[in-house]
Amino acid sequence: MDKFWLAVKVVILALIVVLVVQNIEVVHVQLLGWTIGMPMALLVVIIYLLGMISGRGLMGLIRRLRGKQGSHHH
User: Fold this and answer.
1) Which residues partner with 39 through β-bridges?
2) Is residue 6 part of a domain?
3) Coil, strand or helix: which one is 34?
């Protein structure tokens, strides 16, 4: 099973490399009045990481809220 996950990681890494190579052109992003120029691939990676962080934080909050509700049984 470890070889399977290694193969999956290699395929994902290869896809990331292709994404970076094919999307090297600079795009301009506007946020709160600022305009930032960055490669499209970098923008995709930043959005992915922000989504991962916010998703993890949201799941932690949901777990904590469920835990508090579960401990208040009468």
Assistant:
1) 26
2) no
3) strand
